[in-house]
């Protein structure tokens, strides 16, 4: 019953504001990013046309969301979120989110729902909310059953995961790949921990590998946890060679099933792995001004992890306690910390480490479950009782920031200040930060200021 309540409450909190007219009057952005547009149409195409090709919907997508360099359609550039292969248009992004969203779309599509942008946004929003609500449900199950955390504390950390992070303002609001990756990664960890408790139940390692494999198909950044979890498995089972061999084999078998699916649809629809959307970014997109970009991932006034979710300070403290006190699963907590560190390091090297036109630290959303897991040593310690007030203050502040993002993220701040990846000084300005810009927007509406962007006049 508790799990059902968590699922239903989170789904309602994520989805209901979108259908309230008053909310739409405050934030009229119905689809957060064109990155999520092909996922919507891929789901429709799978159901309606039994294909991944988006030829029927290309004009509709291009007219609403053209390539940034082709706004007048004079060059007819294929939008960056699509690929043109052998005369067919296909999504440039992974398709796992589209597949998971089929249950949401199937009845409206079968009954010929009109393909208007409002209808599509509604279904896309419901899909994003549903995926994140499921992620919250399995986060709670993992905390309770995998880490043996008591119910009250599991609810607190699940609430942090759902509402004090970009999961609230961003990833639950559209068909982002990040939400799918989180759901599948949590399931991978859940079954891995079940195997740790019952080493002879190798089916759990098969499921762990399967879910981690599909997480990787959702976003390539999920490859880091796979490698590190496997290394942890090896080094903690060297004294049990037979068990280690069977565990590693079943885990790898799960990965193989996911890989087989990828190679099948890649050969049928993409023909060559080089036609996959991320392939052309593999060698030419590592252009960030490191280490400034790495500091930006964590501390940028308009994008930093610790700025938008200051409650994560307790994740860092949790790691410290795990290492200092050598608690149960201390090695696993170290692995979680390395996953976060390597992910933020890799992202900081990529030219769009700040996530393009998005709210907060979207690009680091992939590792949010590991931030939550690192809070376990803290919330289980005597220091939680001593610092409980500070924890809930930062928790509340983090939730407030997400509600603010839900209301104010509409791309206007980016339109006013975004200088692209070649000059990232705009990401460090406090005076022109997204927070202060939006305060000025409110003052303009109240007639107390002439413009929210004085330099734009």
TrEMBL record:
Q: Any signal peptide, and if so, which residues?
A: none
Q: Does the keyword Nucleotide-binding apply?
A: no
Q: Which UniProt keywords apply?
A: Membrane, Transmembrane, Transmembrane helix
Domain named Glycosyltransferase RgtA/B/C/D-like: residues? 128-262
Cytoplasm recorded as keyword: no
Specify one Pfam family.
PMT_2
Q: Where are the transmembrane segments?
A: 6-23, 89-111, 123-142, 154-170, 176-193, 205-228, 248-270, 282-299, 305-323, 335-355, 367-384, 391-416
Q: What is this protein called?
A: Glycosyltransferase RgtA/B/C/D-like domain-containing protein
Query: What is the organism field in this record?
Result: candidate division WWE3 bacterium GW2011_GWC2_41_23
């Amino acid at each position: 019953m508790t799990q059902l309540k968590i699922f239903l409450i989170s789904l309602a909190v994520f989805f209901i504001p979108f259908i309230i007219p008053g909310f739409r009057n405050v934030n009229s952005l119905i689809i957060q990013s064109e990155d999520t547009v092909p996922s919507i149409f891929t789901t429709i195409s799978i159901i309606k046309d039994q294909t991944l090709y988006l030829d029927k919907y290309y004009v509709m997508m291009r007219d609403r969301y053209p390539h940034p360099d082709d706004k007048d359609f004079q060059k007819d550039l294929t939008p960056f979120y699509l690929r043109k292969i052998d005369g067919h248009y296909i999504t440039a992004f992974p398709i796992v989110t589209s597949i998971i969203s089929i249950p949401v779309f199937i009845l409206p599509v079968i009954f010929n729902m009109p393909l208007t942008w409002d209808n599509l946004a509604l279904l896309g929003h419901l899909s994003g909310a549903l995926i994140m609500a499921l992620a919250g449900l399995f986060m709670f199950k993992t905390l309770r059953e995998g880490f043996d955390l008591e119910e009250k504390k599991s609810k607190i950390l699940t609430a942090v995961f759902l509402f004090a992070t970009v999961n609230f303002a961003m990833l639950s609001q559209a068909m982002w790949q990040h939400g799918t990756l989180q759901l599948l990664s949590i399931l991978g960890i859940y079954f891995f921990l079940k195997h740790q408790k019952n080493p002879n139940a190798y089916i759990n390692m098969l499921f762990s590998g399967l879910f981690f494999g599909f997480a990787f198909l959702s976003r390539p950044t999920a490859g880091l946890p796979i490698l590190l979890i496997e290394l942890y498995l090896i080094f903690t089972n060297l004294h049990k060679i037979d068990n280690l061999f069977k565990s590693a084999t079943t885990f790898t078998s799960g990965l193989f099933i996911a890989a087989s699916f990828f190679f099948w649809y890649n050969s049928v629809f993409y023909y060559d792995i080089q036609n996959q959307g991320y392939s052309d970014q593999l060698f030419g997109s590592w252009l960030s001004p490191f280490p400034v970009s790495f500091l930006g991932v964590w501390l940028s006034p308009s994008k930093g992890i610790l700025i938008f979710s200051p409650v994560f300070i307790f994740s860092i403290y949790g790691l410290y306690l795990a290492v200092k006190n050598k608690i149960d699963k201390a090695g696993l907590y170290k692995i979680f910390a390395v996953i976060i560190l390597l992910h933020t390091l890799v992202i900081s090297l990529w030219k769009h480490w700040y996530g393009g036109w998005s709210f907060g630290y979207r690009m680091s959303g992939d590792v949010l479950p590991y931030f939550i897991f690192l809070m376990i040593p803290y919330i289980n310690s005597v220091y939680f009782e001593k610092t409980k007030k500070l924890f809930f203050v930062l928790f509340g502040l983090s939730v407030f920031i997400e509600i603010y993002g839900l209301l104010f993220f509409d791309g206007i701040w980016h339109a006013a200040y975004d200088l692209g990846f070649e000059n990232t000084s705009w990401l460090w300005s406090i005076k022109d930060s997204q927070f202060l810009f939006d305060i000025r927007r409110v003052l303009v509406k109240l007639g107390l200021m002439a413009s929210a962007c004085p330099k734009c006049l």
